[in-house]
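Risk register update: the risk of archive-format incompatibility is retired. Evidence:
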Amino acid sequence: MQHRNPQTIKFLDSIKTELHSYGFRFLIGKGLQLNSGEGWRSSGFFDEDKRMIKVAGGRPDWLQVLVHEYAHFKQWLETPANVYNADCHANVIVSRWLHGGNKGKASPTIVHKAFRRVMAYERDAEIRAVRIARQYDLPINPKVYAKYANLYIYSHHLMRDSGNWNTVGNPYLSEAIYRIMPTNFSRRADLTIPRTVYKALSKYYSVK
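Archived output:
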């Protein structure tokens, strides 16, 4: 786990208080990944139904993951209910496509629309995350964060086309891919993906 400097400690105390005031639990695990309870693993998650934020504290980037998941909490808190519910419905479609064995049970049009909405939702969360990191003066480089955030958003295009959540190898460890990622969110990674980026990521998702 990253060293907890005074800014990080202040952030943790602040969000614990806020989350608890809305009946949420805040948990930091010890491993590199978490079991979602639904048959797949991740670095962290926000679950509005279980009222929980949990992150894998054994990761060197646990703080970045936490800021991202806390941004999802802020979306839940601040987004109009009808919009948020539509986002959640899209997320269910995407999750079933990737994890539930429902390939072929949803039309391509429905799947594409759901991924488009989820990517926009994730982009909004990433923009919020950078804002939160700056607000609390956290030890997070916004340009570096944006590179990995854009990689995450771009990866959804590959997940949509391949139906794969898991990768062959780890694109987040590739210097070549890191170099071609944008350092801000001016590009709409949720709407389009450059051919060079798609080609570079395709081998990780077995997309031909």
